[in-house]
Amino acid sequence: MPETYDLILKGGTVVNQDGIGHRDVGLRAGRVAAIGDLARASAGETVDCRGLHILPGVIDTQVHFREPGLTHKEDLESGSRAAVQGGVTAVFEMPNTDPVTTSAAALEDKVKRASGRMHCDFAFFVGGNHANVSELAELERLPGAAGIKVFIGSSTGKLLVPDDEGLRAILQVIRRRASFHAEDESRLEERRKLCVENDPRSHPVWRDETAALQATQRLVALARETGKRVHVLHVSTAEEIEFLAKHKDVASVEVTPHHLTMAAPDCYERLGTRAQMNPPVRDARHRDALWRGVEQGVVDILGSDHAPHTLEEKAKPYPASPSGMTGVQTLVPLMLDHVNAGRLTLERFVDLTSAGPARLFGIAAKGRIATGYDADLTVVDLNRKQTITNGWIASKCGWTPYDGVEVRGWPVGTFVRGAKVMWEGDLVTPSIGAPVRFLEALPHSS
Asked: pTM of the full predicted structure?
C-alpha cells in the first residue's frame, strides 16, 4: 500500500544539515513525514519543485511590527504578510511598541492580536527594564515569549537600561538567553553634538564604533560575572567582531543584511535618511569585517531588524528623522544574491537563518527539514533574476532602500506548518500563524 501525504514537494533540491541533494519531501498533519524518493506515494496536493531549492523555513529573529500603538506604519498582519512574501516562516517581534511589552498582560495581548491574523509563526520579546526585574524569570517562560530584550542604548526611557547595576540585576534572575541592543548611552549623549543638521552622513560619527564596543564589552563582562548567555543584536563594527570572537562561550552574534550590503558614505549620499539605522551603517572597513565574521563562524544568525517608518517620517531633516527601514521581505533575496556572488554558501545561509536561530533560542521542532519537525519550508529559485521594487513591498510603509536593485535568487514559496502560504507572490493560505514553542518553556504536567 503506497504511503499517502497531505502534500508532496516533488523534485526539488533539499538543503539541510546532511548536505544538498535531490529529494522529495512529504508533509502530513503540519509536519515533515518523509524525505527521499516518494515516486510511489500519493498526496492530496503535489507541488512541482524541479529547478528549485527547498530550505528549512527562514526564521527572522528581529522585527518591529509596531502593533499596538504605531499601526499607521505597520501592524502584525501587514508585517507578517511581508515576511511570507519574502520566504520567512517565523518571526520574533520586539517589545518597543506602545504600550511596551513588559508585562504578562501586554504579552498576552500581542499573542491574541497575532492569533488568526499573522501569516507566519511568531514569538514576542519581553522588554527587560528596571521596573520589572522581579517578574522576568516568569515572563520569559510564558507562551509566545521569545525571551528578554534589553536596550543598553537607543530607546525610550521605559525600556532603557544604561547602567551596569540594572543589567546585572536582569542577568541574575533570567535563565534563557537574553538579547541586547548594545550602544553605550553615556557616550551617545556626550557625542550628540556631533550630529550635523540635515546631514545623515554624521549618523555613524555620532553613534561611533566605540559606543558599540564599550557597551558590548560591559555586557560580556556582566555575562561572565553572572554565568548567563547573552545575544548581541545587529553587530556593526570590526572591533566588536574581533572582541566577540574571543567570547563565544557566553555571547552569540547577530548581523543584518543592511550592514552586510550597504556602506557609508555612499548609502547616505544615495538614500539620505532612508539609510538611517541604529546602530548605523558604517564604512566598508566595518562591512568587510562583518563578512569575515560570517566566514570565520563568529556570526551565529541573521536578523533583518525590520523597523518601518513612513516616507513622510523619514523625510524629516536629520537628526529629527527616525532610524529604521523595512527588511523582513528583502532578507532572503538579498542574501541569496550574496550566495550567488560567492560571499557565503547556501549551507551557511541555512545555518544563519534556520539552524542557528533554533540552536541559540532553543526553538522546538523548527530549524531543519526532519521527520517530526514542523513543515516550515522556504522554496527558492537560485537562478531567478528579479528587481526589488517599492511596489513589491507588503509593509504598510510601502518602501525599501533596495528599490531598483536587481538580485539573483528569489523566494518562490513559503510553507508554514505544512500549509502553502505563499506561492509565486500570491498569498494562498492566509492567517495561520501560531506561537513558536521553545524547549526551555514547554508546558509540563504537574
From this structure: 0.98
